[in-house]
């Protein structure tokens, strides 16, 4: 599967950059003390970055869905092609006959394949071009098997039946895995949001209470604060906000990888879930706390 950079991506990038620049100009102080001037600086910052890459990731997700539809239509094409071969028709004629039917999004690739065969281009070269144009790993592997069988003089009918059976089995396994892991995916998201809730409760409610308690009763506790500060005032209280923010980011990243591995069988696709969880986590934390 491949994705191409489109001109429309510049629109999202420019809009995100415009929001980002406005966020810094309006809500950030470059003079002492340097830092955000309002609590909405960080949420707007994250929103601007999200806008900048949202179009790209939307097209990537749409391309993944399109590739799955291509695999389903390719299975129908192989079935029709196998039926034609079973009746005694040659491979080129069976391709021409099978490609005359409607296969949805696979039609442009099949029309090109049929036109190449009519022009006398070798069947091997035409099939290789077809598999490269679809940019689908499943189609590429299936076409390679058919080419090798045809070149070695094997039983094409048996090969097509095996390819069809293999595609059906793979498709069935993918659907079964997706349905069986759906609850685990939902649980993974729920656990992540529960983790964020716990972090917020600790930072917004629990730790301020502990700070007040240790501040008022530090002498009774040997002068040591529960948050790492000394009652004598020699050291500042430990700031754990960024530590907890980092924990949320780490949790979101690896939880996304795990979800992708379970649902799609690929850590690479898990980066999509990681990106979603990390973005949502950062947006929730910064919105609730007004900072990192």
CATH architectural category of the domain at 68-177: Up-down Bundle
**DSSP summary: helix tally:** 10
How many β-strand stretches?
2
CATH class of the domain at 68-177: Mainly Alpha
Mean pLDDT: 81
Summarize this entry quickly.
With 292 residues, the chain is mostly helical. It has ten helices and two strands, in the order αββααααααααα. Helix 5 (123-134) runs antiparallel to helix 6 and helix 8 runs parallel beside helix 10 (267-289).
Set out the fold topology.
Elements: H1 8-27, E1 28-29, E2 35-36, H2 41-86, H3 91-99, H4 107-118, H5 123-134, H6 137-151, H7 156-180, H8 182-216, H9 241-264, H10 267-289
Q: How would you describe the overall organization of this protein?
A:
- There is one protein chain.
- This protein has 292 residues and is mostly helical.
- It has helices at residues 8-27, 41-86, 91-99, 107-118, 123-134, 137-151, 156-180, 182-216, 241-264, 267-289; strands at 28-29, 35-36.
- Strands 1-2 form a two-stranded antiparallel ribbon.
- Helix 5 runs antiparallel to helix 6 and helix 9 (241-264) runs antiparallel to helix 10.
- It is elongated and about 90 Å long.
């Amino acid at each position: 599967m491949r994705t191409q950079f489109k001109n429309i991506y510049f629109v999202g990038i420019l809009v995100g950059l415009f929001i980002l620049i406005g966020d810094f100009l309006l809500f950030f102080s470059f003079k002492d003390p340097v830092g955000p001037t309002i609590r909405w600086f960080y949420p707007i910052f994250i929103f601007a970055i999200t806008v900048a890459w949202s179009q790209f990731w939307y097209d990537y997700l749409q391309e993944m869905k399109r590739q799955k539809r291509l695999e389903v239509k390719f299975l129908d094409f192989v079935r029709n092609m196998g039926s034609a071969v079973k009746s005694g028709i040659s491979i080129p004629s069976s391709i021409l006959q099978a490609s005359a039917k409607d296969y949805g999004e696979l039609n442009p690739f099949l029309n090109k394949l049929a036109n190449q065969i009519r022009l006398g281009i070798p069947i091997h070269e035409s099939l290789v071009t077809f598999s490269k144009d679809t940019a689908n790993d499943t189609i590429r592997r299936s076409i390679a098997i058919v080419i090798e069988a045809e070149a070695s003089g094997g039983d094409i009918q048996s090969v097509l039946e095996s390819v069809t059976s293999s595609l059906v089995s793979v498709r069935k396994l993918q659907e079964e895995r997706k349905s069986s892991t759906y609850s685990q995916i939902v649980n993974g998201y729920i656990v992540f949001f529960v983790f964020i809730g716990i972090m917020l409760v600790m930072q917004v409610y629990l730790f301020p209470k502990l700070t007040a308690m240790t501040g008022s009763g530090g002498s009774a506790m040997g002068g040591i604060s529960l948050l790492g500060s000394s009652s004598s005032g020699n050291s500042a209280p430990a700031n754990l906000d960024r530590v907890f923010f980092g924990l949320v980011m780490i949790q979101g990243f690896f939880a996304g990888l795990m979800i992708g591995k379970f649902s799609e069988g690929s850590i690479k696709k898990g980066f999509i879930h990681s990106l979603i969880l990390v973005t949502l986590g950062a947006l929730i934390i910064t919105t609730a706390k007004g900072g990192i």
